[in-house]
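Quick illustration, no need to memorize.
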Amino acid sequence: MKYLNIFSRMIPFFFFYLAFCRIPFPVSAESVKIIVYFYSSETNINNLNLLKTEFDSYFSGFGPYEFQPVKKKEEFEKYLSGKTKSLFLLSSWHYNNIHQAYFLRPVLVGLRDGQRYQKRILVGKGGSAGAEDAKTAVIASATSIVHTKGILGEIFKNEDSAAGADILTVPKDIDALMSVSLGMSQYALTTENSLETLKNVHPQLYKDMKIVAEGKNSLLLIMAFSDRDMKEDKDILKLIEIIQNMPLTPEGKNKIKMFGLDGWQRIDSPDDLKTEAK
């Protein structure tokens, strides 16, 4: 009886230890795995396997969750048609193109320095750089060719204006700027944030850069799920809360930095996204 009383007093400490050390709880046979699918045409993350490993490791402390990066847009959209419990992380540009077809409901939008928007800019080198010349020049970009030409069409106010441009795909926005400095391209399609980074890292190179045109504001990454089958699924809502709270811990914050984000903002209604690109 003495040992039983001691064990009883230890039980609360045991669960306290599990909660704060994030030791994975056993998953029952009835538990349904929820997969977070990721695809973005706005960035080329070099190592998708590392991305998966890092997020799977983080999620393992909370439940039966899996992170699955996808290389191709077509493959990603196949998962959108599936019946399994899933969340989808994608660019705002991609979301705007497909959300009606797949009944997507946005729940989170990424933040960077407290802002949920980014602005694409066209940057050249030297005083002679101009928007007209860019229409037939080599333009470096960290986004897909299709997306790059779509943004250029918006910047030039004419979709056909970007047809003559030669797109050089690079891994990151900062690489697009560096390619201009090295003479590999004449222009870079990048973001204001990346140009500011260049200013801090290579101030001399920054001095040579000139913004020749600006695009519209666009939202950062969007987290969504299909509203077709799971309007208020408690398991989905639990995972959304876990992801939203990632910036509250050093480990979680380091993980979302892999996307170039430092936080999330909750989206209570799809109407909250209508201010995009204004």
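The domain at 117-218 is CATH 3.40.190.10 (D-Maltodextrin-Binding Protein; domain 2).
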